[in-house]
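Tutorial, part two.
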Amino acid sequence: MIISIRKIKILCVFLAAFLIGYFVWGKLTSPYGVQKVSFIPSKSETFTKGKLNFSIYRASNGVNQDVIYHFHGRNLDHTIWNDDTYFTALIQSHWQKTELKPPTVVLISYGPEWLLTAKNSKEESGLMDDFISNLPFIESIIGKPRNRILIGESMGGLNVLILGLSHPELFSRVASLCPGVYLDSPFSDLDKIMAAMKRTGADPKVALGIYLMAKKYISNEEEWKNISPIELIKKANSQYPELYLSCGLYDKFGNYEGSEALANLAVSKGVKIQWHPLYGGHCAMDIYSLSNFLIIN
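Running the prediction step on this input gives:
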């Protein structure tokens, strides 16, 4: 069947009109701006040592004798603390409404995506050893703290759990937000991983990304057990750092199940813990309780 040139022109005009309308509708229905936080940004300094990048933040009204080591989430960096659209700005805003001086904050980064492991068979491993070896250098700049506090979200939430539960003698408190904690390992059978995704509602694309990141830093089940918070908490006791753990019920990373199990295990081991199950998605947070947890009176 031969289509006339006139019909082809009409079809092209219709298609062009549809695409223009679709583009205009998309622009009209997209957000016109972003909600920002009103706060006074902290004063900052940035340093580099080998693979490690870190920024030191001090509140404008002064700081106390503690230090917070912040491990950021995936695709972020060490400059995020003063971002006025991020949860860290809400924390600073809350602190500024009180008379308490907050800790110095040191934001740690080894790039947009990394996993804190001791040295193992993988070439990329060993970042935990690197951080521990660099602690004296960092604290030669900020001064030896009264208490070390860890906080991290998402990828960073997993990293602070690995660090805090592997070296409990170094830290007083650990705040882990929406951490990548799972009951199954990346080395489980495919049918087991698929069942976990169905059970937790994890986004398959996200699950694949987590799987590939884990395989970059660990190569077998034994190495996984060395960093799995579920395994690490089994060695804990009442002398371990106090934990703050939160996660949204509908976390697209499938983190809720593992976080809840970790909280229950921590209680059974006598670890002091604040568990905050939240009705929301990935990295839903209770800023008020978190901000208070980060200041040790």
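The first strand starts at residue 43 and ends at 49. In part three we will examine how such features are distributed along the chain.
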